[in-house]
UniProtKB/TrEMBL annotation:
Cross-referenced InterPro entries: Glyco_trans_31
Gene3D superfamilies according to UniProt: 3.90.550.50
Descriptive protein name: Hexosyltransferase
EC number: 2.4.1.-
Root EC class: transferase
Keywords associated with the record: Glycosyltransferase, Golgi apparatus, Membrane, Signal-anchor, Transferase, Transmembrane, Transmembrane helix
Mode of membrane association: Single-pass type II membrane protein
Pfam family, one: Galactosyl_T
Organism (species): Echinococcus multilocularis
Residues annotated as transmembrane: 7-25
Source taxonomy: Eukaryota, Metazoa, Spiralia, Lophotrochozoa, Platyhelminthes
Amino acid sequence: MRCRLKNYCQYTALSSSIILAIYYVTSFKPQNYAPVVNISGNPICKWPPTTVKDRHQWKSGFDISICILPNFNEVMSSGVKRYRVKGLFWGSHSKHSVSFEELAELPRSMWTKVKYPEVYKTYPQDVPLRQIVKDIKAGKPVSFIPKYNFPIRLLVTSKSVCHAGSKHDLVLVIKSSVFRWDIRNSFREFMRLENKRYPSLNVGYVFSVGIPRQHGGRLFNRDGHVMNLTGPDGDQLEAFDGRAAEVMEKLNEEIAIHDDIVMADYEDTYYNLTFKTVTNYRWMSAFCGAENVKLFMTMDDDHRVNLSMVDAFMKRIPEKKRRYSTFGYIANYDLAYRSPLKKWFLSYSEFPWDKMYPYLRGFAQIIGPGVVDDMAIGTAYTRYNYAPEDVFLGMVAYKLGIPIFNENSMFDHDLYVETNKEGRPAMVALSKHFL
């Protein structure tokens, strides 16, 4: 997303989920987003599942919460972790310690002397994540229970992309809003022409959507502040408020015609982008498989991709680096918005520090297949009730030690014009630059 943390993802107090059966709206019920330990009566509890049939529960949706085997003899205390103040701030001689929650209460004058990146390590959950990931992938018990393993269910997935072991050179996951039917049709036409222009790549693409918000329109509760979501996103929510069944009818028609939708049971709003992102990683991990895909890419639906440049990228970047890294436009130490009058508002309790860890902007990211499983598991151990989705992924990558690299052919929104004076070709840019 754009500079200075403009995308925030949150499950809000005004949101409620809609429970669906595949392809049909059955009823609307509130769903409480609370962490779960998913063992589901499954004799093989690991991630990713050996096959999707390991956790096939399509009558009520396919459960993509991470399956955890707790080691009850060694489960570590879930008590509040504390940090020495002098270890987080330069020049401090304090003997006191603080929790992550208490960091927001410290005088703001102290934050001019904060130690980066040490302070980022306090972001919940501070656990030995690399070892945990290794154990979960091997189906072994773990000593730390994830606090952010929220129940998310896939309601619809494609039968032509990442299905039954299908192989792809590139899998594109397009982040789209439930209301953007015309944008998706435009993207489909672009991909039809792009595949015809460059047929040597086997490309699969899906649109990632949630379910329509039942009530609330454009109003959200962000950390005690009532936010009025402005712009097209808010306009659409207001226009379709109370019309969820109508929206689902159109989506069901689209699904039947195109078979390119991945739908999960979170409410599809601007502030739930992180739920969409977690869904995307779990789907890529469980349904596609690292061994079946050479490269993953996530992208906003208002951007486009040049397949010939993707092929050139794959040939230019050494295979090991390409498989075990992520690539995009790096945001270096973006600043948080603190004004509750802005839709990008981020409170001190959400992120007490002002400078974010370097992360890849969310408009488009290239993801090596070798890190998808680790990232999918890591999302269950990384707080995301309030985090912007791209900042959130940056924190997951930081905790896992996954390298991020800048790719100067990927342009976020207006940066193609602002920073590309020499007119070099774009692998990713806004759709208007591909006309």
